[in-house]
Amino acid sequence: MKNKAVILGANYYIGLSVIRCLGRNGVHTVAIEYQTQGTYGFLSRYLKEKHIAPHYKKDTRAFVDFLITYAKTQSYKPVLYPCADPYVEVVDAHLDELREYYLIHQSEQGLFSKLMDKNSLHDIAVAHRVLVPETIRIDDDNLIERVKNEIGYPCIVKPSDSPAFVDVFRYKMFKVTNEAELVAAIKKATFKNLDVFVQRIIPGFDDHMYTYDAYLNQDSKVTHYMTCNKKRQYPINFGASVFTEQVHVPQLHEIGAPFLEAVGFKGFAEIEFKKDEKTGDFYLIEINVRTTNLNVLLEKAGIN
Questions:
Q1: Cα 76 to Cα 1, 5, 18, 82, 270, distances in angstroms
Q2: Model confidence pTM above 0.85
Q3: First CA to last CA across the chain, in angstroms?
Q4: What is the CATH number of domain 5-104?
Q5: Domain 203-300 has CATH 3.30.470.20
Q6: Spatial CB neighbours of 76, under 8 Å, sequence gap ≥ 6
Q7: Domain range 134-200, CATH class
Q8: pLDDT in tens, 51-101
Q9: Domain boundaries, the chain
Q10: Phi-psi region of 30 (alpha: psi -120 to 50; beta: other; left: phi over 0)
Q11: I need a labelling partner for 262 at 20 to 30 A (CA). Which of 32, 53, 222, 246 fits?
């Protein structure tokens, strides 16, 4: 293949999985990272090139310039694979500029960020009549009373920007069981200048979590998809998948495909759903607009 694959995030197992999935099929893989320490993807037998670039966050302009300079030296446009949310954010912010030098599946600047941001995702889902957990923003009137009467305890205080929240607290969200804990959680987040909201917990254990993994072509049509059922997460209830199996759930395609097509998505996306153990309804929890930690499972099950 003439087009190289440039992978961002080789210090993470998702990036390593992309290196393996592509490299085993003869794709020339290139990893660009900001340090060698802990970047275990650099050690893969399937990696052809590795480069050290400026830090994507500490010196974003220099990082983007590094990517462009590398692409200019190639005979064919490389394909850019951001394998972690912080890299997706940088690519999205500079999408129009980077698309001059790289093949990037998404063409609408800002769409990645809108779907990653939990507040805007909630509004988009509601507009397309997709079920999402009941949500109250912290600047809404009568917050305490509304949480008590409309959502109830326990509930969760959830960030709009998950990567920024996890960087600070090492958790995806705060679970609160009473008013005092709710107030304390909001104060902790706002003290760090993090935007949060309050959301109902959809009843059901980890095995009520499902994923809809899909690829959409440049016409924003789903060409490939797979559904999976999570069995365990870490931390329990609100963590990352540690045990998941592929299982066909037609309802997820019936919900996920029209939604992704309607918003004009292109490329790979994973929608996380939770099935309400009481009603059987599927609620959209979040969207990953990149390859995910289920990447190897998808390959083993037949969709690389």
A1: 10, 11, 20, 19, 29
A2: yes
A3: 16
A4: 3.40.50.720
A5: yes
A6: 2, 3, 4
A7: alpha beta
A8: 999 999 999 999 999 999 999 999 999 999 999 999 999 999 999 999 999
A9: 5-104, 134-200, 203-300
A10: beta
A11: 246
